[in-house]
Specification:
This protein has 375 residues and is of the alpha+beta class. The chain is built from 13 helices and 9 strands. The protein has 3 domains: 21-135, Immunoglobulin-like (Sandwich); 141-183; 242-374. α8 packs antiparallel against α9, α9 (295-305) packs parallel to α11 (328-338) and α11 runs parallel beside α13 (358-374).
């Protein structure tokens, strides 16, 4: 009996260690460069591969140049994947030792909202990077220098120096002869064939410099979906300073009467924040609403604060604001007021979870969808 339990314990330890190892290294990448090709091998843990297939995530491998960030190859590997890449496609016109970066990434299928940059993004759940160098052949032993470049300290052989002098004197004599003829006739006309050839040469040069990355140029990012039509998240928001806010908060704390506090908040917003185009932060709004004892004056203060709400208000923050109200009807009314400032409408379930009755949830959901379509 003891040996049976000991065998079970050892088997469990082996399985646990294997699971830990698979979780720690879900993707293994092996690179082996040779004289003509680059061999790449990718192996994924079975559990991670089942998760990729089940969730329908994107599994992409990229070979890029880390110095210029140009994607040289982009492929979609499988669970047990071995491929060869010719050195010609990776080197292009480079010579000598060239560094390459091999990236394997598992990417979410759906979009996610980045709060810091206020943009929709596609998140990478896992990324493995392997770097290597390949030999792209020998370059030229001596540098080809234009003899008319005029570099200082350049030494040439005697024969080369004589050849350069002959060319320079011939070019100088041709130039003076052309200028004399132009001065005599006062016109220096070029042939139509020369102008057409130079124009075409200019166009071809411009096209090659514009598309020098070739077919392996970096892929463009997809256009992000719009959360609220007509609103640009790229504009920088100006918020009211903390020092001035807490000075007003200490002044408001000494005032008696909640109706008087609501009027003072309205006057302060219209005279201090509105001329500057500033907004309140989330903690400012929460502190102001928390100081009211009655539901009526708290709702009136929420109405006054509506135009000065922060633009980066999340659904969880709105749910915390709604918890300051005791009754479900008041929570529904405030949710309808503040719904237009939510920057992650896909998380509206947090706001609906605060509601006490189902008919309030239906009203808030319909109002938020209506406001989102009208903006």
């Amino acid at each position: 009996m003891k040996s049976y339990h000991l065998n079970l314990f050892l088997l469990g330890c082996v399985l646990f260690a294997g699971g830990q190892q698979a979780h720690a290294v879900p993707i293994e990448v092996t690179l082996a460069p040779s004289q003509t090709t680059l061999f790449a091998q990718v192996s994924i843990a079975p559990k991670r591969w089942q998760q990729i297939q089940r969730q329908k995530w994107q599994f992409v491998a990229r070979i890029s140049d880390p110095s210029s960030r140009v994607i040289l190859q982009k492929v979609i590997p499988t669970q047990r994947w071995v491929a060869t890449f010719p050195r010609v496609t990776l080197c292009k016109r480079a010579s000598g030792q060239v560094a390459l970066s091999f990236d394997i990434s598992i990417r979410f299928r759906d979009w996610w909202w980045d709060r810091s940059s206020r943009r929709w993004k596609k998140n990478y759940t896992y990324m493995t990077r392997k770097q290597t160098t390949i030999s792209c052949g020998k370059g030229l032993k001596r540098r080809v220098v234009d003899p008319f470049a005029g570099r200082r300290g350049r030494t040439l052989r005697k024969a080369t120096r004589a050849r350069v002098l002959r060319r320079s004197t011939r070019a100088r004599s041709m130039r003076t002869r052309t200028l004399r003829r132009a001065t005599r006739t006062r016109t220096l006309r070029r042939s139509t064939r020369t102008r057409t050839y130079r124009r075409r040469l200019r166009r071809s040069t411009r096209a090659t410099t514009k598309h020098r990355a070739g077919i392996f140029r970096a892929t463009r990012r997809p256009q992000a979906p719009k959360t609220l039509a007509g609103r640009s998240p790229a504009t920088k928001t100006k918020y009211y300073s903390d020092d001035r806010f807490w000075k007003f908060k200490n002044f408001l704390k000494r005032q008696r009467g909640e109706q008087r506090r609501v009027k003072l908040i309205n006057v302060w917003l219209q005279k201090r924040l509105k001329p500057r185009g500033a907004l309140l932060r989330y903690n400012h709004v929460r502190v102001l609403l928390r100081d009211f004892d009655y539901a009526l004056t708290r709702y009136q203060a929420a109405q006054v604060l509506r135009p000065f709400l922060p633009r980066n208000l999340t659904a969880k923050q709105l749910a915390r604001l709604l918890k300051l109200f005791s009754f479900g009807a008041d929570r529904a009314r405030v949710a309808k007021l503040y719904c237009h400032r939510i920057n992650d409408p896909q998380n509206l379930r947090y706001v609906l979870g605060v509601m006490q009755f189902s008919h309030h949830r239906r009203e808030v959901l319909a109002a938020c969808q209506r406001q989102r379509s009208s903006f």
